[in-house]
Amino acid sequence: MPNEFLGNTLFLVALFGGKGSLVYQLPLALHFLIGACEFWVRLNPSAGGFVKKLTDTVRTNRNVILVSKQKIEVYLFLYSIFGLLIGSSNFMQTIILFQFLTLKSKTNPTM
Prior knowledge:
Elements: H1 5-17, H2 26-43, H3 50-60, H4 62-86, H5 91-107
Helix pairs in contact: 1-5, 2-3, 2-4, 4-5
């Protein structure tokens, strides 16, 4: 899953299958930030100012952001298990996240 399209799709399903917790949007937002910066550099390579600094920072720290995204995904699974106990998550959301993490750990050994 080099482009993580399936992972983002599963997180969207988990997001809409849950009880509306906004914390599930964080991995999607990080992935969108990386994609938007890559697209902006290709679209406007001569940009300057704050946008140039932001895109350069995100592009140089891309691997760190992706590792942070993977850690957040694991924590979200643990959060959904705890959410089952207190009633803020549902069983289907937890199963989807579990399947996503097992699939990702099989296809990405660096996780």
